[in-house]
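Hi all, posting the design record for the shared folder.

TITLE: backbone redesign
STEP: 1 of 1
STRUCTURE INPUT:
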């Protein structure tokens, strides 16, 4: 008898739900876009209203409109959501204020209890767990940054002095559990709101990048996963915590005893691709209509005809500065009269690939390992052009899986393990993760991108850094 798993993949730009069978086949999916993040000056960034919960309910409704199977065969829900966010909850389970996005500078500091309306402070996974199950439990693998969590035990500090440095009262924090653990069951109230049958177990996952690594089938063999999301990063996995690194950091993994090694990344990465499409606006819409294509499909086709390197048009992907480098800005440099919209589009894709190669290489050099393969996940991996650019820039085979929304698959794998469908990580991966295709590097493009990177691209940020600092001081006088 076929059994089904609901996988929740909450992101910065959308909430996606998928129903998988236990062999990893994607039965149906639904995605609901989130409202744009609301930015307040240079410091605050919030998800408006109760957008994470409202979008989850809407995605459930859309999902069950598509699902033709028997709801009685749904055996579990894997809950994944955005990391590095903060939710403040009232006693009745409603938000006390909008969820603080990972882009919010308030998250650089521990929560200080000032509002009597706030009963709990938690991550997005904790908030949605409470909504779905009524439980005050959360995955221990989604707490990085200024939380009073012991990096060795991945539990709240027991020593009062260590705990009190973080200013968050213990009674406001949820209890922590391992990933791939049952958090609770869907309540009657949550069932009425979502359509998920009451009593179905809800399973913990981890931070969204670790879940994505698991869902991509990432193993410790020199393979790097490049995650194409609003935040783009590259990742490897291992079993040893590495707290004192320079070019990467280690996060709790998607299963107990596992760690995710993560390079520096690109903030608002794939949002930059969306930005350039919107910037080109009516021009590409009209061209696409004439050929009965979507604007994105037309851009991809036209950008294939743009030569590698875009005739010297380079993109620097600092559209959202790091909190410690507020002078950073995004740049496109090297325009001439031949450049048009497809050049700009391809330049953004190449800029992402070049930046991530440099970050991944710094990580691997520090680890003392070589990159043997790359796996690309996220919606951007659907484009053949982008996949080929990654293969050529990295100079190694670039793979993509049948389910390129790897975080959804990772949530499903956590659920399968928690419910005893598979005995261990590798067995679950072998049964549920399936490779779709591989792009081999083109030798002449590898040579060209290596030269571009070595002679030009790596020098653009250092060459412009002082100028951008001066500009920042003009518009942000102390």
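Okay, here is what came back for every position:
SEQUENCE:
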């Amino acid at each position: 008898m076929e059994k089904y798993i609901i996988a929740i993949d909450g992101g910065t730009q959308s909430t996606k739900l998928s129903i998988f069978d236990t062999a990893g086949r994607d039965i149906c999916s639904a995605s609901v876009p989130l409202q744009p993040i609301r930015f307040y000056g240079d410091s605050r960034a919030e998800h408006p209203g109760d957008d994470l919960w409202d979008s989850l309910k809407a995605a459930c409704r859309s999902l069950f409109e598509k699902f033709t199977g028997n709801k009685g065969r749904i055996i579990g829900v894997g809950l994944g959501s955005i990391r590095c966010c903060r939710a403040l909850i009232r006693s009745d389970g409603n938000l006390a204020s909008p969820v603080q996005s990972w882009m919010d500078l308030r998250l650089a500091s521990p929560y200080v209890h000032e509002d009597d309306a706030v009963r709990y402070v938690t991550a997005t996974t904790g908030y949605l767990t409470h909504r779905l199950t009524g439980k005050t439990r959360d995955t221990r693998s989604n707490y990085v940054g200024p939380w009073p969590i012991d990096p060795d035990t991945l539990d709240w500090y027991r020593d009062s002095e260590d705990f009190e440095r973080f200013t968050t009262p213990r009674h406001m924090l949820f209890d922590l559990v391992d990933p791939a653990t049952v958090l609770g069951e869907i309540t009657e109230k949550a069932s009425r709101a979502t359509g998920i049958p009451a009593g179905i177990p809800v399973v913990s996952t981890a931070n969204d990048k670790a879940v994505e690594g698991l869902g991509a089938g990432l193993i410790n063999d020199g393979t790097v996963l490049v995650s194409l999301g609003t935040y783009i990063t590259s990742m490897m996995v291992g079993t040893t915590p590495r707290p004192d690194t320079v070019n990467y950091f280690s996060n709790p993994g998607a299963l107990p005893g596992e760690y995710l090694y993560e390079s520096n990344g690109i903030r608002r990465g794939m949002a930059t691709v969306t930005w350039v499409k919107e910037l080109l606006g009516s021009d590409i819409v009209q061209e696409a209509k004439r050929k009965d294509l979507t604007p994105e499909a037309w851009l991809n086709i036209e950008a294939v005809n743009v030569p590698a390197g875009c005739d010297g048009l380079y993109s620097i992907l600092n559209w959202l500065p790091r909190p410690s480098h507020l002078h950073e800005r995004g740049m496109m440099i090297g325009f001439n009269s031949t450049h048009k919209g497809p050049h700009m589009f391809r330049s953004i894709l190449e800029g992402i690939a070049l930046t991530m190669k440099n970050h991944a290489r710094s990580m691997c050099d520090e680890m003392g390992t070589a990159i043997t393969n790359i796996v690309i996940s996220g919606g951007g991996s659907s484009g053949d052009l982008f996949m080929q650019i990654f293969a050529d820039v990295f100079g190694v085979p670039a793979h993509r899986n049948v389910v390129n929304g790897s975080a959804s698959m990772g949530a499903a794998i956590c659920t399968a393990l928690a419910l005893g469908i598979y005995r261990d990580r590798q067995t679950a991966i072998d049964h549920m993760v399936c490779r779709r295709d591989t792009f081999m590097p083109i030798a002449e493009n590898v040579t060209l991108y290596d030269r571009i990177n070595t002679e030009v691209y790596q020098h653009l940020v250092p060459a412009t850094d002082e100028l951008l600092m001066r500009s920042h001081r003009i518009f942000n006088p102390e």
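COMMENT: The first helix runs from residue 51 to 66.
Let me know if anyone wants the other runs.
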